[in-house]
Amino acid sequence: MSAFKVKAMLVAGAVSALLLAGCATPPPAVSHDGLHLVPQKSLDEVYLKPGVSLSQFTAIRLAPCTVAFRADWMRNQNFNRSAGTSRVTEEDMQVITDRLARSCDEHFLEALEREPAYHIVGDEVTDEVVLEVRPSIIDLDVTAPDINEVGISRTYTTSSGEMTLFLEAFDAASGEIIARVVDEKEDYDDMRLEWTNRATNMADANRYLRSWTKSLRESLDVARAQQ
Predict the structure, then answer these.
(1) Can you give the pLDDT of all 227 residues of the chain as single tens digits?
(2) In contact, 72 and 64? CB cutoff 8 Å
(3) Dihedral sign, Cα of residue 19, residue 23, residue 27, residue 29
(4) What H or E segment, with its residue span, contains residue 140?
(5) Nearest to residue 162, comparing CAs of 20, 40, 26?
(6) What ranges do the domains of the chain cover?
(7) Phi/psi of residue 169, nearest 5 degrees
(8) The CATH number of 27-225 is which of 3.30.300, 3.30.160, 1.50.10, 1.10.357?
C-alpha cells in the first residue's frame, strides 16, 4: 500500500470519528428496567436502582467474565487481509476471548481482594446479603490479531483497537438488578505506526481492565464507607 493511501485512510478515519462523536446522543436518564443514571467521571454510564444502597451487601459473588467480538469482526478482518496471508478462524477468536476472559477474571478478583478485602463467596448457600457482579467485555475490536501464520510477519498499526465493559450487578437472593455499568475504551490513535502483536494487544487490554476494576473498587469503597 502506498504512503498516500495510508495517509488518506488515516485522515478518513479521523474525520469519521469526529462525525460520530458529533452525532452521539446522551444516554437516557432512566433505563428500560428502571435504573437511574448517576454522575460518574471515570465511566461512561453508571445506572443504579433508586432507593438501594450498595452498602447493604455484605458479600460479593463474582461471575466469570464473558467476552464477545464486535459483529462481523472476523468477516471484516478476512476481507482486509491480502492474498497469501492466513485468515482469521473461529479457533483464533476463541483463543483471544479465552485469554481476555481469564485476564478479566484475574483483574476483578485482585481488585476486590486488595486490603481491606471484600468477602467473596461462591455458589454456596449463605446468610449474607450477596451482590452478584457479572462483568462482560463486548464489542471487542482487535485491529491486528496475532494469529499463527506461516512464516515471519509483522503488523504495524496506529491503534490496537477498542472494547466495552458491560457490567451488571444483582441482588443474588431476589435476582433484582441493582446496577449497570457501560464504559468504552479505545486505544489512543497517535497516527504513528507501531508494531502490534499478542503482547502489545494484551498490554493494552490489561490497562483497560486495571482502569475498570479500579473504578469499581472505588465505587464499592464509597458505598461501604456509608454504612
Answers:
(1) 433 333 333 333 443 443 444 446 889 999 999 999 998 888 999 999 999 989 999 999 999 999 999 999 999 988 877 665 778 899 999 999 999 999 999 999 999 999 999 999 998 888 899 999 999 999 999 887 877 554 444 444 445 689 999 999 999 999 999 999 999 998 755 544 344 567 778 888 999 999 999 999 999 998 888 76
(2) no
(3) positive
(4) strand 130-142
(5) 20
(6) 27-225
(7) -125, 135
(8) 3.30.160
Cα(170)–Cα(47) distance, rounded to whole angstroms? 12
CA distance 213 to 206: 10
166 bridge partner residues = 136, 182
Residue with cell 473461529: 90
Backbone phi and psi for residue 27, each to the nearest 5 degrees, phi listed first: -70, 155
What letters, b where the CB count within 10 A reaches 16 and e where it falls short, cover 65-99?
bebbbbeebbeebeeeeeeeeeebeeebbebbbee
**CA 115 to chain CA mean position, Å:** 24
